[in-house]
Specification:
two-stranded antiparallel sheet; mainly alpha
């Protein structure tokens, strides 16, 4: 244990040395003659590498002892912690659902809070969509933002060029995104792990570069503006009111908040649809095939499961929900550009899935609330907020390496259905 920890600490110190040589060890200064002079600070580099070595050694020893204790506890009674987590989830999930449902009508909630709620729900939906691919099927996707972009641009082009309504463009955007998900799935059928991640990352960048350079269709860097706003089944939202508007038909006082509240409940309904479909599919043969593929692809093939169709269905369904979210994003913003669909968006969505707990719907919702809401909470920190979030993510990965909600409820069980603890899942028994 000590030897392994020391080796791990030495590797961390070498990595730190490679970083600090240029960042700390060499510094340029303006000399007395006005020329740049190179200042060497090797003592500071040595101190920092020593701190990294000592810190990593302490962390490695602590993690080794904790993992050994958790494994022993899990083998002795695997269902205790899982049962407690599941019992807490039965209360937390309805509470979050009720709070989300009544949020627009809580006193003191204004436009800013509703916009933040819309943003959080959008990422919750994206996280649940990516969870189908990563959490259930076990396919590491680093280019999920590509389907988000396909849905947004599909809606924008169909609405602006053909004059189609939101309720027609929404399913079409999802279908087109699913089509591109299948196109991505075919070339990567034989890839796993890091190789799959690299290809999906390249796919996301290809989509972004096409959006930037295909100026005649996408508008290039200028994007697409003037995207029509959604209507309440044909009733437009107007701050002036009048006949044929939402406020006029229902006899309400005209207010700009009507559109915001409608958009809030619209993304809320889309997120609930994503959650419902995911939970239903998990209990179907297709969902069980996803979980079998995630645990062991070779055993999955030996059982006679069509691995090709299983992978393609995961990519297609996950991409479809990403397309739905993209269509909503386009109609909410009324303007889209390639800058909204960079790799950092895929990284944020994947971080939400991993931190929440892969395969956990509740964990992903909590992670999206913490990460997206936390960005706004620490907005005053400016450039330091990314450091705060980086430190928080490292802390969560140390304390909860399998996510906030790391237990799993099996889709099929003989007799009593009990949650499976994270330790057993990590050993391949879940």
């Amino acid at each position: 244990m000590i030897l392994h920890a020391a080796r791990d600490a030495a590797v961390a110190a070498l990595v730190a040395l490679g970083l600090f040589v240029l960042m700390v060890g060499l510094q340029t200064e303006v000399g007395p003659d006005g020329r740049l002079a190179l200042r060497q600070r090797w003592a500071e580099v040595a101190i920092l590498c020593g701190v990294v070595f000592a810190g990593r050694l302490v962390i490695s020893l602590g993690l080794a002892r904790r993992d050994a204790a958790r494994t022993a506890a899990a083998l002795a009674g695997p269902g205790r912690l899982a049962t407690a987590t599941a019992a807490a989830g039965r209360f937390v999930a309805p509470a979050l659902l009720a709070f989300t449902l009544v949020l627009p009508f809580i006193p003191g909630i204004g436009r800013y809070e509703l916009d933040l709620g819309i943003l959080v729900l959008t990422y919750v939906m994206l996280g649940w969509g990516l969870n189908i691919v990563v959490g259930l099927a076990g396919l590491l996707d680093l280019g999920y933002v590509a389907f988000y972009a396909v849905g947004a641009y599909s809606y924008a082009l169909l609405a602006t060029q053909f004059g189609l309504s939101f309720w027609i463009c929404l399913p079409l955007a999802g279908i087109l995104a699913a089509f591109w998900g299948v196109l991505l799935g075919f070339p990567v059928l034989r890839l796993r792990g890091d190789y799959l991640a690299i290809v999906t990352l390249a796919f996301g960048e290809i989509i972004r570069i096409v959006l930037v350079n295909w100026v005649s269709l996408t508008g290039g860097p200028n994007g697409i503006s003037g995207i029509p706003r959604p209507t309440f089944f044909g009733l437009p939202f107007s701050a002036a009111g009048g006949e044929g508007t939402f406020a006029g038909v229902f006899g309400l006082e005209p207010s700009p908040s009507h559109r915001v509240i409608f958009l809030y409940y619209l993304i809320f309904a889309l997120a609930l649809l994503t959650n419902w479909v995911s939970l239903r599919l998990r209990r179907q043969p297709l969902g069980r095939a996803w979980e079998a593929l995630r645990e062991d692809e070779i055993a999955c093939r030996a059982l006679g499961i069509n691995v090709r169709n299983t992978k393609l269905s995961a990519f297609a369904i996950g991409a479809m929900f990403g397309g739905f979210a993209g269509a909503f994003f386009a109609t909410r913003q009324a303007f889209i550009s390639p800058e909204s669909f960079t790799f950092i968006e895929s990284a944020i969505i994947l971080a939400i899935v991993v931190l929440g707990g892969m395969g956990s719907q509740l964990g992903i919702a909590i992670a999206a609330l913490v990460m997206i809401g936390g960005f706004e909470l620490f907005r005053d920190l400016q450039e330091w907020r990314m450091l705060v979030f980086g430190a928080a993510m490292v802390l969560i990965m140390v304390v909860r390496p399998r996510g906030l909600v790391s237990t799993r409820t099996p889709s099929v069980a003989l007799g009593e259905r009990r949650g499976i603890g994270a330790s057993l899942v990590g050993e391949g028994r879940g």
